[in-house]
Amino acid sequence: MPPAPDAPEGPGEVDSDLAEALQALKAAFERRVLPAQFGKAEQARVDLLRSRLRVPRRFREFLLAADPIDVETRTPAERVRLVPSAKLLEEQHGLSLAEDGSARSGPSPSGWRPSWVVIAHSALLGDPYFLDVASPDAEGDCQVFTAMSGTDNWKPRLCASSFATFLRILAIGMEVAKNFPDRDVDMDDEQVFREQLGPRIREHDPAAAKAGHWT
Is 128 helix (H, G, I), strand (E, B) or coil? Predict the structure, then answer.
């Protein structure tokens, strides 16, 4: 039986689904010969993030085992830069937290909810990727969304049905992208990439494939 979502975790301990997704992502960076720096977050910092942001167990395990110090995926359609643990609280200011870092009692004026926790950004467009921590699942995980920045109101769009699956999708994108140029990508390359990516995502996360963010 898996541990409860809020069960204490030991440093560096991850469940099999997260371990497999993380290994796939690291392997994709190695095969593409792209730099990626992972570390290990301090337990005290992760405990603070749990207290302030209610981040779920699986994401806490990720930070303890593979804090994304400098990690940015690269594909013809998107570049996703993961936020390291040291910057996670700062990233929430003006969003799930007020500008001064205090807790919000309700959504921001533009509709950002207190339960939305930014964990990454599009390095191309600046759009955030975020967990919705309002309803963790039995594995201590939750859905990942994105929303277009620069609009009057935030409109979330599903990216992955869990954080572990989000890492897996990033790895799949990196794998598919190995057959495309890293520079001077044109619209035809991007379209072909998206067409090849869609069926691969559908194998792992039909709901995310249906939502259409990646394709």
Answer: strand
Q: Angle at the Cα of 170 (from 168 to 174), degrees rounded to 5?
A: 115
Q: What is the mean pLDDT of residues 52-80?
A: 97
| Residue of 50, 62, 74 whose CA lies nearest to 162 | 62
Residue 163 contacts residue 117 (beta carbons within 8 Å): no
Confidence bin at 10 (pLDDT 50/70/90): low
Confidence band, pLDDT 50/70/90 cuts, at residue 12: low
SS3 at position 177: helix
CATH dotted code for 16-211 = 3.40.1580.10
The whole-number average pLDDT for the span 177-204 is: 90
Cβ atoms of residues 62 and 14 within 8 Å: yes
All residues at 6 or more sequence positions from 139 whose CB lies less than 8 Å from its CB, including other chains = 2, 5, 15, 17, 57, 58, 162, 164
Torsion of CA 113, 48, 54, 202, to 10 degrees: 90
Tokens 């007020």 correspond to what residue? Answer: 98
Q: CB-based contacts of 153: which residues, under 8 Å, 6+ apart?
A: 110, 111
Q: Which backbone phi and psi does 116 adopt, to 5 degrees?
A: -95, 120
**Extents of the domains making up the chain:** 16-211
Mean pLDDT taken over the chain: 93
What crossing angle do the helices spanning 187-204 and 163-177 adopt, rounded to 10°?
A: 140
- C-alpha distance from residue 127 to each of 22, 69, 146, 169, 191 (Å): 23, 19, 7, 17, 20
